[in-house]
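User: Quick one: structure for sequence A, then sequence B.

Assistant: Sequence A:
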Amino acid sequence: MRVILWLGAAVLVSAQQLPTCSAPLWSPCELTFPLEAGEDPARAELRIDARSPHKDTKNLHAFRDGNALVVRFTPDEVGDWDYRITSSLKRLDGQVGKTTGTTSQAPGFVRTANVHHFQTANLQPHLWMGSEIANFISIPRADFDAQLAARTAEKFTHLRVILDPSSDLKEAAARIRSIHDRGIVTDIVFGSLPEDRRERERFVSDAVARFAAFNITWAGVSAYEKLRGARTLLKDVGLDARLVAAGRVDPTRSGRHRFENAAHCMAGLHGWARFAVAR
């Protein structure tokens, strides 16, 4: 029945051209859906269910970029992928498009292995060597590029960056992409979170939509011990240990790393993405 529904929806594609992209394994590509006259970017919503050649499905939310909705997608299987749209925009809802994953020598995203060790998706050991880029967003791009080149030459495998609600997330994504392209994992720490729950959910969901396609770890909040209501805030965004026990986040894909004055939680990349989508 599911196959029939997908095939039936695919017939509708002929009515309009849907975006497509082709990318090597573990390299992000973007599906951009331009809005038409009368469609409000602030109210439009869109997500896709991307189905791999082996029929695994990833649920991905779009983020707003000017007058368009964008889904950032990273293939982890070679071959043709289908994606089915769920959207508040009736002209797009139920439509089916395609993307392609091509071969790559990239080792893949980092994950935990044997509880206390790390490996990449190709099952090779991963040595976690962490550093930090201070003032990640505020420093000039040339200074960022110079620091990134230096950390790469020093053989670091992780770079810690701090974001907060005032950060330019579009610029942050461009810089995280540069880190990703160097084969380095980005450890994202939130310097603060909005106190209002709706604003907090909006901010976290936007961050997940923009960054989850990169090789990252979600590293909780900085200054955990000094943040008022930190446990409640982290619970709201899916970083509480009880959510791990309940299956709401996936500890098998998490990263744990500790810097001075920073707290890191069991926050799986794909698990947290699922939590944000569910909210």
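Sequence B:
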Amino acid sequence: MNQTTLDTPPDRSPAMAGPEDDRPAARGWFATVRRERPGLIEVAIFALALLVYQGSRVLVMGQPSLAFENAAHIISWERSSGLFVESSVQEWMLNHVQLTEMLNYFYMSAHWIVTILFFVWLFHRHRRVYPYVRNAFLFANGIALIVYAVFPVAPPRLMGGHQFVDTLSSISDIDLQGGMFAGLFNPHAAVPSMHFGYAFMIAMVMPVLVRSWPLRLVALAYPAVVLLTIVGTANHYITDALAGGVVIATGFFTIFLWMMARGRLSEPSSDPDAARRLAR
């Protein structure tokens, strides 16, 4: 028999090709899309993360009795430490009904709109620091889901014995417990407040990257407006906001260490120290 025939592997027809033959093509397609349409990949990442986050947030709803018990402990702790100002803030808000109505809609919309616009801006204007912020953001949301599962807390608006008013319902006729919003909100996920956490993230990142002082001041003021909103509408306690800030800071610090360990921390070319300043 001809030696050449023995040494030459038989031709593989398309019908004989196994699943492994499609892997290089699939990887090549993904690499092409990632190179030529990076924005599309990021949209897919955030869409998937949103589905997981919202779905998991509903699935980890705690027992109502435990959520109310934890909320009572928070109120007691805030009273003893002098942090319990929620009633005073809401009393002031209820004396300014038009402002309260504006902040009700701000609570429902800004959390999403401002955060999306922030990431779009970051992706287009500061591409090198974008992965760091995105990964820290996603990691922090993962931490938040764990806290929701192990430490459910009822928001102030559900604590009937403490004279809190659900301004969303009473003033703007927005019902978070029923209708179109029922499946989007976990009523026992007050801690941590990611409304405040996202705002805190923007206040950490934007002033480092932008050169305009007015924009820096707007970014720094944003968490204060969010804090007034979440407390004044009786959706969160002061403790919730503190926890949200800690969760975001933990996400940034953890991803900073991870990227440093892998040698993948890239700084924007316009400011070589920006990424490291973000982690401080």
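Residues 97-125 form the longest helix (29 residues). Residues 144 and 192 are 6 Å apart (CA to CA).

User: Thanks, that's what I needed.
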